[in-house]
Amino acid sequence: MRYPKPHPPRFGLRAMTSDLRTRLLLMLVLPLCLLAMVGVWLDYRSADEAAVQHDQRLLRLMPALADSVLAPPIHDNEPPLLLLAPPIEDFLRLNAGFSGYSVRNTAGRLLLGDEWVNGAVPTTQAPEFRSVEYGGVTYRVVVQRGRTGAGELVVALADGSDPRQKWAQQLLLRVLLPNLVLLMAAGFAIHWAVRQAFKPLVVLAEAVERRSPRDLSPIDEAASPDEVRPLVRSLNHLFALVNAQAEGQRRFVADAAHQLRTPLAGLQAQVEAWAMMAKAAAPSRSMSSDFDKKQLPVQEGQAQGAIVLGVDQIEKLRNATRRTSQLAHQLLALSRADARSLDAQPPQRVDIKDLCESLLETFLDAATGKGLDLGLDMQPVHVTGHGWLLRELLSNLVDNAIRYTQPGGVVTIRCGLRPGRTGQPRAFVEVEDDGPGVPEDERARVLQRFYRVPGAGGEGTGLGLAIADEITRVHGATLTLDQGPHGRGLLVTVRFA
């Protein structure tokens, strides 16, 4: 039985693990993104609370700024008399370059301070807060209308150290960029961690994928992580069930073929004896003289025809028993070649040259009887394997060549060493004939069991090349079918590793 090479499905275990990696990555990264957003919000809330406290501090300084205006101007074009209170002076000194103040009249005309510290004149005495952009800095400005030593004026105090404004300016540098870097680093770390975590599962999948269809040995559970062991245990259970079923089928085929060999051998021996007796009796009747034939009674002529007819029937029966015996023998050989019990039998050193010589002696009579030229072209070569299986392989190849080659043809057995693709010498065995050959589009199919090329002559069972291919794969070798060197016939080559 030929096992097709398993092709992993397009959305197989690798696709499943990739999907699991993506899902795990999303499940871990999305919470990190949510936490980053929560961190941004908390940072903003913290900055907002600090800004509120900052506004309260500015508001507490407003009375001191109003008290700093001591008296109205002596002349109309002069500013009012100003003496900064210590709190205001300390504030401006500590925040030099990021602070300012202004004193305006109710019409909005600047009397003292900085021109850029401006804003709409309040209509009430309630303080008003606003933001002013100046020199690339966003200032927090509090404006209040109230009584001063110079009358009712509008005073304003500005501070560029507002945490909320700084947070808005440094949002990309202080918040978004660090969080983005953190998310990218976490994504790479999670991807690496998930990949490492799934590595045993991928290794397990590759190990199962590389297995031969005949390899149903259990997988080592200890080499798998705890989370994968239930899967490994289930696979081992499935392997055990399939192994038991396959072993039962092989045992049945082997037992049936073995049980058939004994009665078939006896039947074939009996038919062979009948055929010899019939052939011996038929010529004695045919050698009678014409005079004797004329004197034969009608009953004697009928008996002679019956003998001739009996010879033909016995010949057909003999051919049928031969084919049945060969089929039973091939089924038994196929069952033995397919059995994994070969793994328990240590391979031995096999002399291919001696094997070819013994096969030449075995098939010489059959080739001579058909008028074939059976030759041998050999070099000393040894391989490691099972001698009885290799003999079965070559027997099937030689038997096929003799069976399908027309009388007068040539069959050649070769063995020796030949450079492989890597340049290293490889042992090979070839069987070449000048028969009808096998069409190129049929060469892959003739290696299937019980398949014969349509229109092929002979009395084959379609198992010879299938058995040879099975034995070849058991020995780790390769079997190829090519056209003969003269454009006709079949060249079967077995290359050993």
Task: Explain how this protein is built.
It is built from ten helices and 14 strands. With 497 residues, the chain is α+β, with helices and mostly antiparallel strands. It folds into three domains: 203 residues, no CATH class; 109 residues, Orthogonal Bundle (Helix Hairpins), CATH 1.10.287; 151 residues, 2-Layer Sandwich (Heat Shock Protein 90). The longest helix has 58 residues. The N terminus is likely disordered.
Please supply descriptive tags for the structure shown above.
Heat Shock Protein 90, 497 residues, single chain, alpha+beta, 10 helices, 5-stranded antiparallel sheet, Helix Hairpins, 3 domains
Quick description:
The protein folds into three domains: 8-210, no CATH class; 229-337, Helix Hairpins; 345-495, Heat Shock Protein 90 (2-Layer Sandwich), CATH 3.30.565.10. 53% of the residues lie in helices and 18% in strands.
How many structural domains? 3
What's the story with the biggest beta sheet?
5 strands, antiparallel
Average pLDDT, all residues:
76
Strand order of the largest sheet: 4-3-7-6-5
- Counted beta strands: 14
Q: Give the CA-CA distance, first to last residue.
A: 23 Å
Rg result: 52 Å
Which word captures the global form? rod-shaped
Task: Outline the secondary-structure elements.
Blueprint: H1 13-67, E1 69-71, E2 81-82, H2 86-94, E3 99-104, E4 110-113, E5 128-134, E6 137-148, E7 151-159, H3 163-169, H4 171-210, H5 229-286, H6 290-295, H7 298-338, E8 348-351, H8 352-369, E9 373-378, E10 382-385, H9 387-404, E11 410-419, E12 425-433, H10 464-474, E13 478-483, E14 490-495
Parallel strand pairs: 9-11
Antiparallel strand pairs: 1-2, 3-4, 3-7, 5-6, 6-7, 8-10, 11-12, 12-14, 13-14
